């Protein structure tokens, strides 16, 4: 049996070794490669059922390679759901449920982002205009599964006083150990740089309760950096991406680290910004920045696992001027945060201009996924690809390049990625399998030899053109979740957005 470590060393050196088997945002299209936050403007909850819409696919050939502001939210309300009739146990990749918010309407963009916590699912709808007096403020819906039945338990919205601008709540969400973090950015035109914030909720006896609002501790709390465009949380640590973060006259992007209680941290290129705080109080403790790369959009995507942070910079330019993108891996030690590695494709997978490596990222233990939704190889212009890396003897080594076995140009494979152990779920929101830009998602697994294989292609049972199924993805122990921001269910309006649940 081939040694996995030896294989990884060969890949890092640029060897070509065939392996048999193996977040574009709502307003990011495959035609221009830009990352602009636009202003996007459902029905009852669902029971799991097995209409078997996921499909097994041929085996793929994988080419290796500052201070918190305490507030409270209203008491949650519960939306009842009918008890379903018993059904057969679904197989891997079969659709078992589909739902939207109880009050979802057209252009809510329900499913733009999602987060999974055991038998709970949190779904953002940043286009929800619930006040009826201004533009979309956004909402987050909380669902729970019990007895094979998904119920909407509550709808979360921030205290308006905690966000002193016209915000869009739900640009990104993350959850860990009873802590939920929701990004919010200002509603402005496509050529402006928004202000932002991140809202923290805690899961208590009466449901989710807003406990803090996080902002960048810079010269002004109103700093325009798109703070909140991406968020991640693990235990008592939060990452908040600010892809327009400024250093002097340049805007390479930044990512802020907040911790709950304790002393300030140092490092990350931005120095220490926190002070000793009471237990339970959130404060900024570090600012992570790239090295000399103006306009790299560092912080467009973030992931966090323990003392490791992964930050995507999809617009990073090489010396030759090509915007290829990359991702940075930081680790926290006794002296604070330090850049540990730059994650870029192996030399035999040299990215091209417009690949946008780092457009979405995922991190779990010693494995990292870095999407390049604009990659041309192997499936054509903006076909997309995802690079897998593994930590070996402390070094991060390119392991595998994942691509759809039946991929095509403009699929945008890598629109979002999720990772759980030896399984990965990858969205391809512009796939045309069930109509133009209907979207799809791909389930991958890694065997005992460390080789990735494509296990299934997931498709919705009611997929329509332009649904953008695959905008967001998530994984739990036995379920895969896929958001379609322009999808709909029988109970929702057109283009309200929907989330689909599959057995995995």
Provide a compact summary of the structure.
This protein is an all-beta fold.
SSE layout:
Elements: H1 4-12, E1 19-20, E2 61-64, E3 95-99, E4 113-117, E5 120-125, E6 139-146, E7 149-156, E8 167-176, E9 179-186, E10 196-204, E11 207-214, E12 230-234, E13 237-242, E14 254-262, E15 277-288, E16 301-305, E17 308-313, E18 326-333, E19 336-343, E20 357-364, E21 367-372, E22 385-392, E23 395-402, E24 413-420, E25 423-428, E26 440-446, E27 452-458, E28 469-475, E29 479-484, E30 498-503
Antiparallel strand pairs: 1-2, 2-23, 3-30, 4-5, 5-6, 6-7, 8-9, 9-10, 10-11, 12-13, 13-14, 14-15, 16-17, 17-18, 18-19, 20-21, 21-22, 22-23, 24-25, 25-26, 26-27, 28-29, 29-30
List keywords for this structure.
2% helix, 4-stranded antiparallel beta sheet, mainly beta, single chain, disordered N terminus, 6-stranded antiparallel beta sheet, 504 residues
Provide structural commentary.
With 504 residues, the protein is mainly beta. 2% of the residues lie in helices and 41% in strands. The protein has one helix spanning 4-12, and strands spanning 19-20, 61-64, 95-99, 113-117, 120-125, 139-146, 149-156, 167-176, 179-186, 196-204, 207-214, 230-234, 237-242, 254-262, 277-288, 301-305, 308-313, 326-333, 336-343, 357-364, 367-372, 385-392, 395-402, 413-420, 423-428, 440-446, 452-458, 469-475, 479-484, 498-503. Strand 22 and strand 23 (395-402) form a beta hairpin. The longest helix has 9 residues, at 4-12. It is globular. 57% of the residues are buried.
